[in-house]
């Protein structure tokens, strides 16, 4: 299985429409791949908070249409990164116009295979954490030969989310991100940790450039179920391609069956003495 991660340089001077067209062309160039992955919030920049509302779009908006066509033209499974999605107004649990950080996954025919609203929002008491709503659902996508578990950026710091994805059948964990350069060491460390503890492939695709004054880490990475780094990008815009063998997940889990030794439902600690 060939995976291509497109580490996009999000230039603040490049109009969003122009970037959509440029990225669609990059996707079409990956026609020999099986899976193509884009970064988080590449239309706006993950730290360009003031752009979230201005550039928010409905789920089936311009980015949806452009990426669906690109996936179909290239004949690839496409994780199209994430967009600032504005839920429709009109009542109901998701009909209040809330913004979400939403990932889109398309089949090789250009059909929407899955949408994932980011569960863990970054920013603590500002930025994404206050501007966007939180998703609630774990999302997996069945591909020929493997099942994707979908997460986004800050989710990488929460191992329980990935345990849930593995319990749902995930064998390849796909993580688009807009990770800052100042915490790049965490990016690599956590990507390897999620691969080792879940005995799964990790495909983590970040952005390059600078978002609202925040330099991006780049260094997209592909990690195998033993934690070995199969490929890693540099700091700039780059297409990172790696061939992975989905059968290695089952082989690893059989050879070193640590997941079978999980102990669930532990009681909280009791004070003694």
Task: Briefly summarize what is shown.
With 273 residues, the chain is an alpha/beta fold. The protein has 7 helices and 15 strands.
Describe the structure.
- The protein is α/β, with parallel strands linked by helices and 273 residues long.
- It has one domain: Carbon-nitrogen hydrolase (Nitrilase/N-carbamoyl-D-aminoacid amidohydrolase, 4-Layer Sandwich), CATH 3.60.110.
- 26% of the residues lie in helices and 27% in strands.
- The chain is built from seven helices and 15 strands.
- The chain has a six-stranded mixed beta sheet. Strands 7-8-9-10-13-14 form a six-stranded mixed beta sheet, covered by helices on one side.
- The longest helix is centred in the last third of the chain and has 15 residues, at 184-198.
- It is globular, with a radius of gyration of 18 Å.
- The N and C termini lie far apart (57 Å).
- The relative contact order is 0.16.
- The model has no long low-confidence stretch (mean pLDDT 95).
């Amino acid at each position: 299985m060939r995976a291509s991660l497109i580490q996009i340089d999000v230039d603040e001077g490049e109009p969003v429409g122009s970037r959509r067209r440029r990225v669609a062309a990059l996707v079409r160039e990956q026609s020999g791949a099986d899976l193509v992955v884009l970064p988080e919030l590449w239309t706006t920049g993950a730290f360009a908070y003031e752009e979230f509302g201005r550039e928010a779009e409905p789920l089936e908006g311009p980015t949806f249409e452009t990426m669906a066509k690109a996936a179909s033209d290239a004949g690839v499974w496409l994780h199209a990164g994430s967009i600032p999605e504005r839920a429709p107004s009109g009542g109901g649990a998701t009909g209040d116009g809330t913004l979400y950080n939403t990932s889109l996954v398309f089949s090789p025919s250009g059909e929407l295979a899955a949408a994932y609203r980011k569960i863990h929002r970054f920013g603590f008491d500002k930025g994404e954490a206050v501007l966007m709503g939180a998703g609630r659902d774990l999302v997996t996508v069945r591909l020929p030969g493997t099942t994707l578990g979908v997460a986004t950026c800050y989710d990488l710091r929460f191992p329980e989310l990935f345990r849930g994805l593995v319990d749902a059948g995930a064998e390849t964990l796909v993580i688009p991100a807009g990770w800052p350069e100042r915490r790049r060491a965490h990016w690599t460390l956590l990507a390897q940790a999620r691969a080792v503890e879940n005995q799964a492939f990790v495909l983590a695709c970040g952005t390059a450039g600078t978002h609202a004054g925040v330099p991006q880490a780049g260094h997209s990475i592909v990690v195998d179920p033993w934690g070995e780094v199969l490929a890693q990008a540099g700091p700039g815009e780059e297409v990172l391609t790696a061939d992975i063998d989905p059968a290695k997940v089952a082989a690893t889990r059989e050879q070193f069956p640590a997941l079978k030794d999980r102990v669930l439902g532990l009681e909280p600690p009791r004070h003694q003495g």
